[in-house]
Structures are given as structure tokens and as C-alpha cells.
Write a structure and sequence with these properties.
alpha/beta, Aspartate Aminotransferase, domain 2, 2 domains, 7-stranded mixed beta sheet, 4-stranded mixed beta sheet
């Protein structure tokens, strides 16, 4: 199909300047391993694992074959009052990777749905505990928790909220932890743990038994890679424990090896009550999200309902879709068989060295990173975000795909990357940044 302005007009693209894109489209037509190919068979290195989705590399035949077999065997079954073996097998597989105790898994179809599901779980849990007055949620400035109504209300990225109003009342935002004192800090910064005390201020503001849950990304990814300062997550955990608040880690980006362990909770040694996940759960091959909860949360909700009654009135038509479960099971097997989390952990020092070496360029305002995730922030151009958008286009034209947010290039290669591919990625970045 020839792509023209007319043939592209009907598709309303998400998070895209539609008019600009359709005047000058940049299209992918196929992918394999660490690479995309665009029109004209131009080879483009994938520096952001798709959209942080494809940790095992593109077009894995093991996943495609598993999905094809599933679609030819059982294409769909409702998950309401029915089930299929793949859903239970995948729940077991996810529970083997989550921190000890988070061993009940609810499936949905995206990270956005996972966040809204987690909010509902928190409310249902407190209701079952006879604490329905816990109606406040806490998030952070610069947070991204998806685009459903609940997640948008939690969001601390103003452009994601401003067109839609407050959406939900009772959402409070902690200050973000991107501090000038931590510029060019590799890993966790030394300054900022005291910002967790904002949660204590909110407890004192609204009452000791009014907050249902606190949502944080262990590493704030979509906003430009903000790594938590030392001691920050631990202090949040302490305050939550003291006041009966659920701590939710949004690991939609951090999960499945990005930080060197299965989840950032394990990398940072802080165990939340709930983990949301998506993206790399199926290597991006099928839409899927999930929520893992502590046993006592599941038991409180389930055992608090009358015998024979539905305990949690929530779910989606495509929850635990057979094809998505098949993709998830095949993906987890690749992670296990190829030891990809350990491979990412072994490569991460080399990757971080390469990213932090870019700080000698005059246009680079900051570099932040942990594991196989880094943010390279450039000094703003004519207006905030203009240079970042321009940089993304320049990188594509020179053979590198990365995600940018504002003036930050977010780098997250697949866990299968080699040192040679890190070198190529860095070389293209340096070349483009050197233009400024």
C-alpha cells in the first residue's frame, strides 16, 4: 500500500503531532532482533526496546509460534466464570519472579489498565477491612501512570492532565526527586531521601486513616528517567507500614530485567504491596498487563465476600486472553532459558559508562541511569521540548530509534544487546548531539 497523506488521514495516532507526522511520515515495516527496517529497507537500531516492551529482541519465533498454535487451538474464552489453563500457568510464572509474598496475579491488557485495576484493588481491600474512609491516593509530580481515568489523575506530567481537568478528586502529589544536586549522578543520588517526608505531611493533612495507597514508579521512566535517591523508597515503605497505607510500585517499564533483576523492587530491596506490570511481560508481542498483590490483600478481599459471591467486580473482556497468555509463557521461557536478566545486569556497567561519557558534550544538561535504562537530557532550544522532538527525528534519519520526552532521550536497549550495538547506539547519539 502506498502511503500518502490521503491514505494516512483516517488513523488518529496516539501521543503524536498528527499533522506533522502525516506531512513527513517515519514508518517501520519490519523488525528482527535489535533492529527495525523503515521504508526503503533502511536499517534502524532500536535503542528503546520498541517502547520499553521488547526486552528479548524483535520477532522472536518462539513467541510467534506459541501465539499461532494457541489461536488455532483456543482463540478466545471469557475469563468471567470461565478459564483456560494458560492463564493459571502464566500467573504461576509471574509469581515465581515477583518478590516473595506477591503471589496473586490479576490480568488485564495494558499498563494503564493495570494501574486502574490496582486502584480498585486498594479501594476494595480497605472496604473489606471496614476502612472505606480511605479515599485519598498519593502519587508524585512528574509521574506517569498510564492514560485511563485513574492513571491520568495520578499523573504528575502536566501535559497529560491539563486537557482533561482533575478527573478524580482526592489525589495528592509528592514532590519529584529530580534534584540539581544529583546531576550526572550514576545510579541513586545522595540527596533527596527527605522528600519522602511529604507523605507524612499528607497523613497529617488529611488524617492518619484516610490514604488508601501511594503509587510510585521505582524509576520514573516516561518522564525522563528519574532514579530514586538513596533511602527514599525505604522511607516511603516505613511511613506506609506505620499508617496502613498500601505501597504500589508501577513497574510497567522497570519490570522484567530492566534494572538487573526481575523487578526493581528486588534491585532496590524494597517490597511493595502491589506491583503493576505490562510491556515486557509478553515482549510486546501481544497486549497484556498484570497486577501482582500480596497474599493478605487477596485473602482479605476474597474471604470478606459471602460464600458463592463474586468477590471483586472488575475485569475486562480480554483479561487473560489465550493468545496473550501464550505469548507471556513463551516470553518468560526465553528470559529463563537465555538468562536474559543476568545478561542485562552484566552489560549494564558498559552501557552506563557509554551514556555517562556523553556528558562532555556541551548540549548535554544531565545524564541519569540505572541498569539498562538511561536518560540523556539536552539543554532546551527555542522552547521546552522542541530540541528533544528534533533530536528524535534526527536520530531516526541516522539509523537510531529512541523515545524522547520533552528534552530527554530515553535509552533502553533490549537485554540481548551486545557491546558492539551499545557502541553503535552511542556513536549515533554522539554524532547527532554534536550538531548542537
Amino acid at each position: 500500500m502506498e502511503m500518502t497523506l490521503e491514505t494516512m488521514e483516517r488513523h488518529w495516532m496516539p501521543f503524536t503531532a498528527n499533522r506533522d507526522f502525516k506531512r513527513d511520515p517515519r514508518l517501520f515495516i519490519r523488525a528482527s532482533g535489535m533492529y527495525y527496517w523503515s521504508t526503503g529497507e533502511r536499517k534502524i537500531l532500536d535503542g528503546s526496546s520498541g517502547l520499553f516492551t521488547t526486552a528479548a529482541g524483535h520477532c522472536r519465533p518462539e513467541i510467534a509460534d506459541a501465539v499461532a498454535r494457541q489461536l488455532q487451538t483456543l482463540d478466545f474464552t471469557p475469563s468471567f466464570m470461565r478459564g483456560h489453563p494458560g492463564a493459571f500457568a502464566l500467573a504461576d510464572g509471574v509469581a515465581e519472579l515477583t518478590p516473595v509474598g506477591l503471589d496473586h496475579v490479576f490480568f488485564c491488557n495494558s499498563g494503564s489498565e493495570a494501574v486502574d485495576t490496582a486502584m480498585k484493588i486498594a479501594m476494595a481491600y480497605h472496604l473489606a477491612r471496614k476502612e472505606a474512609q480511605r479515599t485519598y491516593f498519593v502519587s508524585r509530580e512528574r509521574a506517569y501512570h498510564g492514560v485511563n481515568v485513574g492513571g491520568t489523575a495520578l499523573s504528575g506530567m502536566v501535559r497529560n492532565r491539563e486537557a482533561f481537568g482533575a478527573l478524580l478528586p482526592g489525589v495528592l502529589h509528592l514532590r519529584h526527586t529530580l534534584l540539581p544536586e544529583n546531576r550526572f549522578s550514576r545510579g541513586m543520588g545522595a540527596t533527596g531521601a527527605e522528600l519522602a517526608e511529604d507523605l507524612l505531611r499528607f497523613v497529617n493533612l488529611v488524617g492518619e486513616r484516610r490514604i488508601a495507597a501511594v503509587f510510585v514508579e521505582p524509576i520514573a521512566g516516561s518522564t525522563g528517567v528519574i532514579v530514586p535517591p538513596k533511602g527514599y523508597l525505604e522511607r516511603l515503605r516505613e511511613i506506609c507500614d506505620k499508617y496502613g497505607i498500601l505501597l504500589v510500585f508501577d513497574e510497567v517499564i522497570c519490570g522484567f530485567g530492566r534494572t538487573g533483576e526481575a523487578f526493581a523492587a528486588s534491585s532496590f530491596g524494597v517490597t511493595p504491596d502491589i506491583i503493576t506490570m505490562a510491556k515486557a511481560l509478553t515482549n510486546g508481542a501481544q497486549p497484556m498487563g498484570a497486577v501482582a498483590v500480596r497474599d493478605h490483600i487477596y485473602r482479605t478481599i476474597v474471604d470478606g465476600a459471602p460464600e458463592g459471591a463474586t468477590e471483586f467486580f472488575h475485569g475486562y473482556t480480554y483479561s487473560a486472553h489465550p493468545a496473550a497468555c501464550a505469548a507471556g509463557l513463551a516470553t518468560l521461557e526465553i528470559y529463563r532459558k537465555e538468562n536474559l536478566f543476568a545478561k542485562g545486569r552484566e552489560l549494564s556497567p558498559y552501557f552506563q559508562d557509554a551514556m555517562f561519557a556523553l556528558q562532555d558534550l556541551g548540549v548535554v544538561a544531565d545524564v541519569r541511569g540505572y541498569g539498562m535504562l538511561a536518560g540523556v537530557e539536552v539543554k532546551p532550544g527555542a522552547a521546552p521540548g522542541v530540541r528533544g522532538t528534533e533530536l528524535q527525528a534526527k536520530l531516526f534519519d541516522r539509523g537510531l530509534h529512541v523515545k524522547t520526552t520533552g528534552d530527554v532521550a530515553i535509552i533502553a536497549p533490549a537485554l540481548i544487546a551486545t557491546r558492539a550495538e551499545v557502541d553503535l547506539l552511542t556513536s549515533i547519539l554522539r554524532d547527532c548531539l554534536g550538531d548542537y
